[in-house]
Design brief:
Elements lengths: L1 E6 L4 H11 L3 E6 L23 E4 L2 E4 L1 H12 L11 H32 L7 H31 L12 H15 L8 H11 L2 H10 L6
Parallel strand pairs: 1-2
Antiparallel strand pairs: 1-3, 3-4
Length: 222
């Protein structure tokens, strides 16, 4: 049986949604972030050396990284769902957006989170102006403009298609739900990105997504 090692408020929430869509039997082993640092507990390192989530175990297999987990589950349990015909135009779109989510979009989202935390982090008073000045400069000159550019790119794409790889939901949609939920949750206006907002609402309305929320526990981005 599949076991998902699930960290609260993390990328692993989207894996619960996929497992619900696939209708497979699975267990959830829960891990809680440290209330002060928001870091994952050290116990996750017993499952995978990097101590990150999501991780799944399936028999003797231990698989980390959301994109690989999504590919593994779809190819082994999807019964031809969520995977376009290999070599077709939707197939290449699926692979592109699957890799884009963590390769291009998420690094910017993480940098944005880190630099915004720096501006409010406790530190000696004489260091605060310097740290905040550096954080503001990086946000204004690099991170902020690149986040906006990516969100506008996604907004334009979703104006011409209901799902990321075409008319049918694919693994790319499971991969992209977390960063786009985070983007809307962290201050990007739904009014500025109506297509992204509509896509997120479409996902949230799915019964499988609602079941995943119930099973996953508290999740700040839905």
């Amino acid at each position: 049986m599949i076991t998902l090692h699930h960290l609260n408020n993390s990328r692993s929430q989207r894996i619960i949604w996929l497992l619900e869509e696939l209708g497979v039997d699975y267990d959830i082993k829960r891990y809680e972030r440290d209330s002060k640092t928001s870091l994952a507990p050290a116990s996750l390192k017993a499952i995978h050396p990097l101590g990150k989530s999501p991780v799944i175990t399936d028999g003797e297999q231990t698989i980390a990284e959301s994109g690989l987990i999504i590919e593994y589950l779809i190819r082994n349990y999807g019964k031809e769902r969520f995977l376009p015909e290999e070599g077709s135009a939707p197939y290449w779109q699926y692979l592109y957006w699957l890799h884009y989510a963590e390769g291009s979009l998420m690094p910017l989202m993480v940098m944005s989170l880190i630099f915004n935390k720096i501006k409010t982090a406790p530190m000696p008073f004489f260091i605060k102006p310097i740290a905040r000045g550096i954080a503001d400069k990086v946000m204004q000159s690099y991170v902020g403009p690149n986040v906006l550019n990516n969100l506008r790119y996604i907004e334009q794409h979703l104006g011409s298609t209901p799902w990321f790889a075409g008319e049918q939901m694919t693994g790319a949609d499971f991969q992209l739900i977390f960063p786009l939920e985070a983007a809307l949750n962290r201050g990007s206006s739904a009014n500025d990105y109506p297509n992204i907002s509509a896509w997120v609402k479409r996902v949230h309305a799915l019964p499988t997504y609602q079941t995943a929320l119930q099973k996953g526990g508290p999740y700040d981005y839905a």
